[in-house]
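User: Predict structure, ligand flavin-adenine dinucleotide.
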Amino acid sequence: MPLNKEIQPGDNDELTRERLQATFDTQQMAAALWGSDLARKRRELAKKVDKLTVLHDSKDMSFMTREEKLSENARKVVQMFAHVADIVEDPSDDAEMFHLSSNAIGHEGHPFGVHFVMFIPALKAQADDEQREKWLMPALGLQLIGTYAQTELGHGTNLRALETMATFDKATDEFVIHTPTVTALKWWPGSLGKSSNHAVVSANLIIDGKSYGHHNFMVQIRDENTHKPLKGITVGDIGPKMAYNASDNGFLGFDHHRIPRRNMLMRHAKVDKNGVYTKPPHAKIGYSAMVHVRSVMIGHQGMFLGSASTIAIRYSLVRRQGEIKEGSGEVKILDYQTQQHRLFPQLARAYVFMFAGKEVRELYQKVLSDMEKGETTLLADLHALTSGLKSVVTHLCVAGMEQCRMACGGHGYSRASGIPEIWGVAVGGCTYEGENMVMLLQLARYLMKAVKETKKGKSLGRLVDYLLLPQDRHSLIGRVPQGEYGPHLAAFEHIARRQIFKVADELTKLQDKGMSKEIAWQKKAVELQRAARLHTRFYLAACFHRKVQSVVDGRIREALADLYHLHLNYELLDMVNYALEDAYLKADQVDFIREDMYRLLETIRPNAISLVDAFEFSDRELRSVLGRRDGHVYENLYKWAKESELNRADVLPYFDKYLKPMMLAARQRSNI
Ligand SMILES: CCCCCCCCCCCCCCCCCCCCCCCCCC(=O)SCCNC(=O)CCNC(=O)[C@H](O)C(C)(C)COP(=O)(O)OP(=O)(O)OC[C@H]1O[C@@H](n2cnc3c(N)ncnc32)[C@H](O)[C@@H]1OP(=O)(O)O
Ligand SMILES: Cc1cc2nc3c(=O)[nH]c(=O)nc-3n(C[C@H](O)[C@H](O)[C@H](O)COP(=O)(O)OP(=O)(O)OC[C@H]3O[C@@H](n4cnc5c(N)ncnc54)[C@H](O)[C@@H]3O)c2cc1C
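Assistant: Predicted complex:
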């Protein structure tokens, strides 16, 4: 059977020649990336969105004001729901809905952003059956718009310091929600500013003067008909952000606002009418909506990096600049080794982040179904894994996207490239759902506990089984037959294990000298977050390995293995200092890794376009002139620039108002 190579009439010949070189079928590679069912659904829904003009951007969002963006995406999201049954096979499938949304709406936000990502997951995990009936069904049916209001002006990370109060009033069987200070104002919740009419609000539960820590409460914030804030509620937009400006992130304050007792989400923790409090089965079960977003973010961040890689690689095959051999003509910029070294490792990361995203979603689903039965054993593992992945993946994604942007030269800096907006959205991920450094320290906590168990000969969980294995003193990289990469993966394991034990020993030594546990932790915090990063990077490399092993088709496995081996080499070089510290690697082995990496760049080069085609991002989804599938970049850049609002007239008023008088005055002065 001929291989599918994504060639279409009217394509730029340069790209067609590139596509013909592929060693694999792009649709089969797409199936490896997304799963075959989702890959098919994505393809079909993109075609349907193409035909439905009501779902198309009315103009490029780059040329819109914030209010126009909000209005445009509200229009599209409503149209999207109106046509959803004709477009997707299963509207309750989050993945399918997410892809519909990224095709039709893009990534700048819309009024239902947090509704689907946090509000509904919070209700699913924390509302009891009666409450689900009351709010989850209407929320799924779009009868209300919800947000998740946890962060305050004064505190986002340290949830124990949240100040919003929910004081139980036994006499009326109500909670009184109150914002005692300006720092207690809720700050940041997505779609809160102008769109939502309900919020899951985190507030300190106070019964008879005693605080039970923060819990989640359902609060209606706006009238369902007039959309005006309810009495005792102040709400508004927090202003423009780096990106994500079609989302109205908001502020929210309460002045002794009363809600019924049954508005506390009571699946796990409960308060009865006598004010008797029942503890949840796990102290952090109320954090489940955060864990949900952390788990979905991994794959989505991979998609963002995949989008930027697609844009930069396609453009690098259209752009010619300079000669490699004098007189032989200008070359495609992707033929430069430096360009390949800049882009292919990002492409490999995008792949592995998407694979890891799938694994972590499966674990989340398992934990969620366990939680339904009151079983919480795997919650700590999930928290540790998502905390590490969330931090490492967002950090590497935005660093990688910046490489993609720079690899496009000047045109990468233009919004026409599409990279600035997705970079701006992705970089928010380093902060939201737990600031990266803080989340790495959460994982480090787990790792230090794992060390203690290891010393007793036990494992804390599957993720840290490797701590029980003995340390090798020297790496076998370059000492085994060419093409064997087991020692590379072993090096990731070695580096992570060594750093984890090293910092654990250092903590013990400090405490043995009489330092408190907390101060010792502070003294070693940078080393601790390094341990968490190295553990996560080992997890990612091992995940890539598992994926390559699982692929049946020989051609796909070979192309994926090239990316995997590049990933191993590139990431090892990026953290080689850890392997040199204990002479685990020698200088000749580092040279071996480098040379192998350069070899792999050349091997991957002919497959580059098909490896990005395999993401199957539609042009509508990419929203990039540089990344167009057909490669017709220059004529479309010119067309795009002409759309700029500044080109509506040859002379704009500011010229007559400011510059002309200044120049006239200057001329007059020079004539005197
Ligand atoms: C139309 C529609 C289309 C529809 C489509 C629909 C489809 C939709 C599909 C989905 C689409 C998705 C799209 C996404 C991408 C889109 C782009 C943009 C979107 C932007 C959205 C942005 C949303 C962003 C939202 C937000 O940002 S919302 C706010 C997030 N805020 C934070 O994340 C605060 C961080 N801070 C903390 O999480 C805590 O503060 C703290 C540090 C843990 C300490 O917590 P503390 O309570 O102090 O506990 P410790 O004392 O440290 O620990 C004590 C003990 O508890 C343990 N433990 C702590 N935790 C946990 C935990 N979880 N679980 C288990 N254990 C835990 C710890 O291991 C320790 O164990 P031990 O060692 O004792 O054994
Ligand atoms: C785009 C976007 C969307 C958001 N959406 C929502 C939403 O829908 N709902 C919601 O409730 N919130 C939302 N947030 C808020 C977000 O969750 C918080 O901003 C985030 O959790 C970080 O908290 P912070 O702002 O308090 O940062 P801070 O904690 O003030 O971080 C500042 C610095 O202090 C350091 N730091 C803080 N604590 C520690 C510590 N213990 N140890 C070491 N270092 C520390 C951090 O590492 C960081 O370097 C959103 C934020 C963004 C950017």
